[in-house]
Amino acid sequence: MLKFTPILLAVLYGLVMWRFSAWRLKSELDQRSAELAEPGLRELNKRLARALDLARIKVHLYDIPAINGLAAPDGRIFLTRGFLEAYRAGRVTAEELASVIAHELGHVALGHSRRRMIDFSGQNALRVGLAQVLGRVVPGLGPVIANTAMSLIAARLSRGDEYEADAYASALLTKAGIGTAPQISLLEKLEHLTGAGGAGRPAWLMSHPKTAERVAAIRKLESGWHG
């Protein structure tokens, strides 16, 4: 039993750290956000809500300059001030912002936040166990190898979540009569907007799939619907 104690402690540590991170994020969002009331998005939000048989979809504005969307662990959907400013400057369209909202709704509907909590705890335990085993084989390098392996697994799982949220958004946008064109066009301009190209970074280290792969997956999904 004693030899499993570090692993059990790692699971407990992962759960505690996830809860703490979620609490800290909630506090940050509560302090720096308010409900988004942008006239140009109102009708599109209504169309998304009707497609989901909801009375309304509440979207919050997160007051940071980065261009991003966020699905909080408590289920709230956020667009950043940077995204809203890009919209008001004509760099993105209202339909493209609606595709971001649909994508974040996908993360919520598919339970990705809860899944990441379980994954994080499991990876923490696996990291400890792997470091112990490898430490006997390659002393001093066990923790390094274990950390690298867990980083690769975490990135792979995150990319899977993004594909799933993309597919959910594609279906929702199509049902709402908006279509996937804004989703694709936003993905194609997003790297330029955020300055996060990652062109020289290996795909297996990235938390999001490459743009071309995401667009190809959406087009394949759409062709299957119309095929």
TrEMBL record:
Cofactor note: Binds 1 zinc ion per subunit.
GO cellular component, one term: membrane
Peptidase M48 domain span: 38-221
GO molecular function, one term: metalloendopeptidase activity
Biological processes per GO annotation: proteolysis involved in protein catabolic process
InterPro entries noted in UniProt: Mito/Outer_Membr_Metalloprot, Peptidase_M48
The entry's keywords: Hydrolase, Metal-binding, Metalloprotease, Protease, Zinc
Superkingdom of source: Bacteria
Pfam families: Peptidase_M48
Reported cofactor(s): Zn(2+)
Family: Belongs to the peptidase M48 family.
The protein's name: Peptidase M48
Annotated source species: Pseudooceanicola antarcticus
Phylogenetic placement of the source organism: Bacteria, Pseudomonadati, Pseudomonadota, Alphaproteobacteria, Rhodobacterales
